[in-house]
Specification:
Layout: H1 5-10, E1 12-22, E2 34-36, E3 42-47, E4 51-57, E5 63-67, E6 76-79, E7 86-89, E8 93-97, E9 103-108, E10 140-143, E11 149-156, E12 164-171, E13 177-182, E14 189-194, E15 200-206, E16 214-220, E17 223-229, E18 233-237, E19 243-247, E20 253-258, E21 264-269, H2 270-273, E22 285-293, E23 296-301, E24 309-314, E25 319-325, E26 331-336, E27 342-345, E28 351-357, H3 364-369
Parallel strand pairs: 1-25
Antiparallel strand pairs: 1-28, 2-3, 3-4, 4-5, 6-7, 7-8, 8-9, 10-11, 11-12, 12-13, 14-15, 15-16, 16-17, 18-19, 19-20, 20-21, 22-23, 23-24, 24-25, 26-27, 27-28
């Protein structure tokens, strides 16, 4: 189709509301919601200071909670596909716990807060009020889609060398390190992106500068092969897992990568296809996006605005097919919610809306059971 910006802005594609799900912890006392679209179920996850709340969308609609070993400012958390184990990635260690809070296994690592801290397995009371630990950097963790492994990004220390960071693949049953690779990063935070193949995983690492890398890992036994894209931020993975979509820290372009080897295949510059909103010099892609269809990604510009603009992009040609029209107000960027769906935040961050294109059949329960 034409890449004329005026034409692209004029075409509209209607989103159909599938479900509205209240946030279990609200917005004031918890981190932003995660949606984990595991095979057979969709889990909504919120991390509070004292607990991790999980709600199953569709199916039985179960809700359950995990006691948190430390407040949310000290790390992130994720949940297994079965919903029976939570993994917390903290300042000094990674812990797997069950719903009672019992620690199933723990992996100590170097401190994310300061290079001079040598504590491992430190009790929370020893660093909760320590000024050096108030704004720590953070790693992250994610389960593979089959739930058999946990991928973690950690900081390490070794005598005679500077602090370094590693990407580890752990046995989900006992925390044994199955394979590892240095990331060659100085991360401030990171996000994992599970892949339909349990041997693969994406990792986006924020370094606070334009050198933020995307790592694409493939595990083969005890070896972890890593492809690297410099200066990009991972947005989403396609339903088949064959491709993934990125933008850059400057938000200039969208990039399509081949998941087999990490090669960049195509790009589209926002300036070339989208008109700016009044007062801006150009449109800029947002850092988050969704890839619900092989031939359609939902990405946004102006996520900060009262009315952000969401766009339907065809990754096959990296062309903008038009703007998404919603029947109710939405806020922020679209985010992945599994094949055929994406999500947005409802007003005042009180709930999550699930969407699919209006001409797509099916309901959320059918999607989860398929």
């Amino acid at each position: 189709m034409s890449t004329d910006p005026i034409h692209a802005d004029a075409v509209h594609h209607t989103a159909r509301l599938v479900a509205t799900v209240p946030l279990p912890l609200g917005s004031a006392r918890a981190d932003a919601v995660q949606l984990l679209p595991w095979s057979g179920r969709l889990l909504l996850v919120q991390h509070g200071d004292e607990e991790l709340a999980v709600a199953e969308i569709g199916g039985a609609g179960a809700q359950f909670r995990f006691p948190a070993p430390w407040p949310r400012r000290f790390g992130g958390a994720t949940v297994s596909p079965g919903g029976d184990v939570a993994v917390f990635s903290g300042v000094h260690s990674v812990q797997a716990v069950d719903r009672t809070g019992e620690v199933l296994w723990e992996l100590p690592h170097g401190c994310w807060a300061t290079a001079t801290c040598a504590w491992t397995r430190a009790p929370l009371a020893s660093y909760r009020d320590d000024p050096r630990h108030q704004n720590p950097d953070q790693g992250s963790a994610a389960f593979s889609v089959d739930g058999k492994t946990v991928w973690v990004h950690v900081r390490q220390y070794a005598e005679g060398r500077r602090p370094y960071e590693e990407w580890l693949v752990l046995d989900a049953a006992d925390g044994e390190v199955l394979c590892r690779a240095e990331t060659m990063t100085v991360g401030a935070g990171s996000v994992h992106f599970p892949h339909p193949d349990p041997a693969c995983m994406g990792l986006s690492i924020a370094q606070g500068d334009d050198d933020a890398p995307v790592l694409w890992g493939r595990r083969d036994g005890r070896a972890l092969a890593v492809a690297r894209a410099e200066g990009e931020i991972l947005q989403s993975v396609s339903p088949s897992g064959r491709h993934f979509l990125c933008t850059d820290p400057g938000q200039w372009a969208l990039y399509l990568h081949d998941a087999a080897d990490g090669e960049q295949l195509r790009r589209v510059d926002a300036r070339a296809v989208l008109p700016p909103v009044p007062g801006d010099d150009m449109a800029r892609w947002d850092y988050e996006g969704a890839y619900p269809y092989e031939d359609g990604a939902v990405v946004s510009t102006e996520e900060y605005a009262e009315v952000p603009r969401h766009w339907l992009v065809d990754p096959r040609s990296m062309s903008v097919r038009g703007r998404i029209a919603y029947p109710v107000p939405v806020a922020g960027s679209p985010r992945s919610a599994g094949p055929g769906m994406w999500c947005t935040v409802a007003g005042q961050d009180a709930a999550v809306h699930l969407w699919r294109l209006a001409d797509e059949a099916g309901e959320v329960g059918e999607e989860i059971r398929s």
